Amino acid sequence: MDVSVVGSIALDTVETPTGRNEEGLGGAATYFSLAAAQFAAVRLVGVVGEDFPAAHVELLRSKGIDLDGLERASGKTFRWTGRYHEDINNRDTLDTQLNVFEHFHPKLPPAACAAPFLFLGNIHPSLQTEVLEQAKASFVGLDTMNLWINIALDDLKAVLRRVNAIIINDSEVKLLTGESNLVKGAKAVRALGPRIVVVKKGEHGCLLFGEDDIFSAPAYPLENVVDPTGAGDSFAGGFMGYLAGCGKVDSASLRQAVVYGSAVASFTCEKFGPDRLAEITRHDIQQRFEEFRKLAAF
Amino acid sequence: MDVSVVGSIALDTVETPTGRNEEGLGGAATYFSLAAAQFAAVRLVGVVGEDFPAAHVELLRSKGIDLDGLERASGKTFRWTGRYHEDINNRDTLDTQLNVFEHFHPKLPPAACAAPFLFLGNIHPSLQTEVLEQAKASFVGLDTMNLWINIALDDLKAVLRRVNAIIINDSEVKLLTGESNLVKGAKAVRALGPRIVVVKKGEHGCLLFGEDDIFSAPAYPLENVVDPTGAGDSFAGGFMGYLAGCGKVDSASLRQAVVYGSAVASFTCEKFGPDRLAEITRHDIQQRFEEFRKLAAF
Q1: What residues does A201 pair with on adjacent strands?
Q2: Which of A87, A204, A222 sits opposite B204 (nearest CB)?
Q3: Helices (H) and strands (E) in chain B, counts
Q4: How large is the angle between the packed helices A251-268 and A282-296, nearest 10 degrees?
Q5: Is residue A93 exposed (0-12), middle (13-18) or buried (19+ Cβ within 10 Å)?
Q6: Distance (Å) from the C-alpha of residue B63 to the closest C-alpha of chain A?
Q7: Alpha-carbon distance A89 to A69, whole Å?
Q8: Domains, chain A, ranges and CATH?
């Protein structure tokens, strides 16, 4: 089945302890699409400016990603600049230029509307609702961030009531619910709407909370993290893409989706930007999936 | 097979967001012994003062723990006072009174010397070496802490060269090796001697590093953590006790030992002090072990 995604497409400037990547291809929807395209047909909805390099468009198209929903607006592409610490689990945002993203109102082409799976990337929750109004998806996943929890909580709560799954990191669970215990926190998030709560814990893996069901997935023990940018978005893409690809959502497929998401995310960290993600094959992912099995077996 | 343990026996005063436990039974060797006794014969070596309640001695004896190595010295028992934060993963030590522990030099009775498994609890590394000189164990595990890494690094390195396994938490790995990446850090710890490195990550579970072998164990998703004091020591007791009980150390038994350790540790957090640990049965532990299987299955 198809999966549609709405979210940011960016030019990222990233500094890590090992190097620097100037105005590389970035954005949540970019990583999501490249990851999900390994498993299912992807329909990307987003906006870029006049300066967005044709090579990036070509890369996405070469992966079979449907770009009918890719709007090119007058102005400059969204830019993000960040610097990672020596402990690469931490980073600072140095600069954000919304540019064409500032006035973006997603318009879904017919095929994107019709996709049975939909992912609402990390954009203002009122825009996420606008997308929901257009879409006919039967399974909707959502990402959000501290900013929206802080400044648009009512809008966020409104859209949360209408989605099936949320993918959220542990600090966001605490901020959203006030619970420092993640089990209680995830229950509180479920009470806001989504029946499936996926909590990303970075280097500590991931927890999946469903109906009387908890799954704990390890993180892949990466020795050299080159650039973690987009790891969370790649996770979401692997997760949603796998579910769309197998076309059913139950405890078994959700658990596997979490591991496929984790596998894809681990590749993303191995090179700058989406470079590694763009070169891996379904076979590479399957090999890593089997490594996850060994990692967790007892 | 038997397991000997050398470490602290204490009277702990603990405050948590849900309550307070005044001068309760505590100490690393206490938790270790109660946990390990679920799996193997335990020989406890430690020191208490004249004020140590007879009821605590009775409790340990009732669990079949060999107390021939329990020295009663003139003076007061070691005391620790701590307060847990609202986020119960963090705590402050409010007071430490070493008392009889200050001049403790462990003397192992013959049966404790002869035990094939030995655990060197978190005491000064030069004392750990003193114990090693007496013992005939073929498998030795060790715990340590930030304090010894900071003030007795050479002594610690000397004893590390002589042990088979270290049980250490993630922040200690970083302090000991200077590596913020845990995979690199664990490799660096292995280069110091111990071929088996068990990294405890609290609510994020545990990583086991062996010969070309990594195992990631989830933490049990506890909704109500009453008092985490002794969880790490209970983990060590379950881990070493299980290995001693099955009498062999290989990848399969080590992985199971990590899960049994995690299971026992999760019980410890459910009540103040060792109250829960003292009441559980081998059957309870087995049930929780099966819950870990479900938690990690995909």
Answers
A1: none
A2: A204
A3: 12, 13
A4: 110
A5: exposed
A6: 28
A7: 33
A8: 2-296 (3.40.1190.20)
Please tell me which residue of chain B has the smallest CA distance to A218.
B216
Of the partner residues A180, A218, A223, the one whose CB lies closest to the CB of residue B216: A218
Residue of chain A whose Cα is closest to the Cα of B294: A215
**pLDDT (tens place) for every residue of chain A, 298 residues total:** 999 999 999 999 999 999 999 999 999 999 999 999 999 999 999 999 999 999 999 999 999 999 999 999 999 999 999 999 988 989 999 999 999 999 999 999 999 999 999 999 999 999 999 999 999 999 999 999 999 999 999 999 999 999 999 999 999 999 999 999 999 999 999 999 999 999 999 999 999 999 989 999 999 999 999 999 999 999 999 999 999 999 999 999 999 999 999 999 999 999 999 999 999 999 999 999 999 999 999 9
Residue type, A46: G
- A246-254, long-range: CB within 8 Å, 24+ apart, which pairs? A247/A1, A247/A116, A249/A139, A249/A164, A249/A196, A251/A210, A251/A213, A251/A215, A252/B298, A254/A196, A254/A208, A254/A210, A254/A215
- Cβ-Cβ contacts under 8 Å, A217 against chain B: 298
A-chain residues near B184 (CB < 8 A): 223
CA pseudo-torsion sign A250, A255, A258, A264 = negative
Residues forming a β-bridge with A4: A43, A118
Tokens of B149: 């890494």
Beta-carbon separation of A255 and B183 below 8 A: no
Q: How far apart are CA A240 and CA A36, in angstroms?
A: 7
Assess: ipTM above 0.85. yes
In this structure, chain A runs to a length of: 298
